[in-house]
Design a protein that fits this description.
The chain is α+β, with helices and mostly antiparallel strands. It is built from two helices and two strands; from the N terminus they run H-E-E-H.
Length: about 70
């Protein structure tokens, strides 16, 4: 449980460790922001959201870190 102004510190920490967007990290498909394989690999693990370019195996399993092999 976060008390007082601790939520500010928690938010700052989450923002500081979140990967920053760079060229090639995403593209727009109509009104959807689509994250690329490049971004997912930089992120370091699967978010489990059913992403189109999930590079992890098995796909779309939250916290998975094993990359697919071709």
């Amino acid at each position: 449980m976060i008390r007082g102004n601790d939520w500010i510190v928690d938010l700052h920490h989450k923002e500081s460790i979140k990967p920053k967007y760079e060229d090639g990290d995403f593209y727009w498909d109509k009104d959807k922001m689509v994250m690329t394989e490049q971004y997912h690999i930089k992120r370091g693990n699967c978010c489990g959201s059913g992403c189109r370019h999930c590079p992890y195996w098995p796909t779309n399993q939250k916290s998975n870190t094993k990359l697919k092999t071709n």
